[in-house]
Amino acid sequence: MYLSISIDVSPRDGSAFARLGQQADRIEQAGADFVLLAHETGAGTLEPGRLEAVVTLPWIARRLATPVVVAALPAVHSVPFHIARALSAADFLTAGRAGWLPLLQGGARFDAAYGDAYHLPPGDRVAKHDDFIRATRALWDSWDQDALILNKDSGAYLDSAKVRRVDYRGPFFATMGPLNAARPPQGHPLLVRDLDDVAGSTIPADVVLGGAERLAGVDARGAVRLLKVIAATVEQGEALVRAGKADGLHVAGPDAIDQLEALRRHYTRQPTTGATARARLGLAAPANPYSQATTHSKKVPA
Question: Is the whole-model pTM more than 0.85?
Answer without folding.
Answer: yes
